[in-house]
Amino acid sequence: MKKIIPVLALIISFKSFASIEVRPSCYLSDNEEILYMDMFPWNQTRAEMEENSWVIYNSGKRMDNRVFYEDDKFLMPFKASGGKTQYARVPEVFIKSLVSQIEYALDNDYVDFINFSDMGHSHFFIPNEFYDGELSKYSYAKEKAKFFETLMNEKSVLSLYHTAEQMKFFEKRGDEFPLADRYIQKRFYTRSFVAKNDGSRNGKILFNLDASGQATSTYRPDEYRYWGSGISFNATKNGCFSFKKNGQVFYFDMSADDVGYNMPNGY
Question: Which residues form the signal peptide (predicted)?
């Protein structure tokens, strides 16, 4: 009987998420090895980033507090005030949007790798009208899961990505201009990528030469407000969700938490 239950759950899942495969790795497991920041060095060359991305992917390590599948739905854990864990239901449109945005960025050579070193975290531009009318109802400290669940269901929300996060852009600290390499300069000046949360393949580069590190946090301020807390995601062979790059399928996890540090004894 125990061998039948996962199969039945998988069949049921296709009814709820017809276009999203529910892999066995979407369910929580007790023996998952956690991904930590010690795998992500700063100031990497393109070659170093490529090599390291394969190491991270093939390690199979999972994100802490990752999105998982249970009772016909994807759930995103949040630590609320008081230490209690809350869960936001992740809608299909949000998952489809993230997958589409990853594939769009890869297909257009905006990014090369799906992890923190390149494209692995997001922020949001929230329409002011939607924030004032809906999101402001919730206490972010006490109702973070409900806040994010409402946000993830709204198609007018924009996801903002700051890419090439750990790429070596400068010869030395304090330099004003990036290295005299066309690839490096392209990645530096196209770091801010924004896309709609509507499930479509869309996106555009935001240019802001005055932004620190070319990582802009402003976009049509009369219409949108910047929200720094987004999601993190990481490509790993044991991941729950899938995307395609050059026709090949890869897998990834997502979490509301940043990739953390492996601190001994919790310190």
Answer: 1-18
The model's pLDDT over 75-115, given as tens digits with 9 standing for 90+, comes to 999 987 777 899 999 999 999 999 999 999 999 999 999 99
Alpha helices in 115-256 (DSSP H): 128-133, 144-152, 182-189
Distance CA 119, CA 159 (A): 12
Give the alpha-carbon dihedral of 206, 197, 203, 243, to 10 degrees. 130
Confidence of residue 263 (pLDDT cuts 50, 70, 90): confident
- Map residue 235 onto helix, strand or coil: strand
Global confidence as pTM: 0.90
Spatial neighbors of 9 by CB under 8 A, at least 6 apart, are: 22, 27
| Tokens 């935001």 found at | 206
The encoded tokens of residue 266 equal 């919790």
Phi (first) and psi of residue 77, to 5 degrees: -75, 145
Task: Please choose, from the candidates 104, 158, 106, the residue with its C-alpha nearest in 3D space to the C-alpha of residue 131.
Answer: 158
DSSP string for 31-82: TPPBP-GGG--SSB-HHHHHHHHHHHHHHT-B-TTB-EEETTEEEEEEE-TT
